[in-house]
Amino acid sequence: MINLTRGVPPVEVFPIEDLIRASEKNLREDGKRVLQYLHAPGYPPLVEYLAKKHEVDNDQVVLGNSSLELLQFVTLTEMKAGDYAFIESPSYDRANTLLKRSGANVVGIPLETDGVNLDVFEKELKKNAPKLFYIIPDFQNPMGTTTSLEKRKQIAKWAVEYNFLVIEDAPYRELRYHGTAVPSIRSFAPDHVVTLSSFSKTLAPGLRMGYMYGPKDIIKRITAWEVDTYIGSVTPTQGQVFEYLKQGSFEPNLKKLCDLYRPRLDTLLETLNEYLPNAVYPRPEGGFFVGVTLPEGNSMEKLLPAAAEAGFKLTDGRGFYLNPQDGDRFLRIPFCSLTPEEIRNAMQSLTKIIVH
């Protein structure tokens, strides 16, 4: 069975020995603190490290058990039922779910190859300005797109003008294999943006080590919510990650990841061009995914059982859309866990059951 569902790092990239050493060192030197109750915002040395990295004050950072949890906290503190929330369409399926759970009126803004459709965005703004807009601007999940500089500036301008909060989710930003980084949305409107990130894609997902930074008043509310929920997030993991960062292991490991994933992305794009010339997809420069809109004549209802019979596990593309039927021909292809040879063999087989 070939698994083309989740974008999970291959287990061989986990720096297990380095993490063992980091954990042991932190426990020996600061074990009494990391094993005790520790209130949010989290382990102070890691909070300080991340604040310095992202050029913010310490009280602009809060740690959590994954960035997804922090996203949920934002929906609980910054919105109430009946408020409007915008999201890219398609977008991360769990973000769709969390926004729906909040009781918000969720509006999907169609995603183009360089970011959301600004005409639709403006039209929806004039109808009902949102409380927040959730966006993955770098190597978006599930599409793989990167929002252009021009669109980032316009989104930031509207955030100020219409006074809404941009949730800039950036788990893939450092996983760039080609090209140059685009300035963050936050750099254009720091008072209207919170940025989410984690070490799930760049270190190990099992650490469940997420963080958020942004305006002090919002971070204060998130911190208070976290304290009232469970006092503080898991501290030994935070100490382990801090020591790993402190010993200078992160950047060399990040380079290894980029060197590993680059040919995998290149191979997927080559095979898509070769075997699915009539499909529509972006050409990502990083991340874990390429989102493909299949030609007319395909549907998830037919493709999923046919793929299972052929030995493939696929993600139902309808889950990435607020209106499921909009994703009936949408296929998210993760490339991170397969070697270039495995990707080529997989695409050769998979395209045999796709209508060209």
From TrEMBL:
Keywords: Aminotransferase, DNA-binding, Pyridoxal phosphate, Transferase. Residues 1-350 form the Aminotransferase class I/classII large domain. GO terms for molecular function: DNA binding; pyridoxal phosphate binding; transaminase activity. One of its GO terms (biological process) is alpha-amino acid metabolic process. InterPro entries: Aminotransferase_I/II_large, Class-I_PLP-dep_aminotransf, PyrdxlP-dep_Trfase, PyrdxlP-dep_Trfase_major, PyrdxlP-dep_Trfase_small. SUPFAM superfamilies: PLP-dependent transferases. It comes from the Bacteria. Its cofactor is pyridoxal 5'-phosphate. PANTHER family: AMINOTRANSFERASE (PTHR42790), KYNURENINE_ALPHA-AMINOADIPATE AMINOTRANSFERASE, MITOCHONDRIAL (PTHR42790:SF19). This is DNA-binding transcriptional regulator, MocR family. It comes from Flexilinea flocculi.
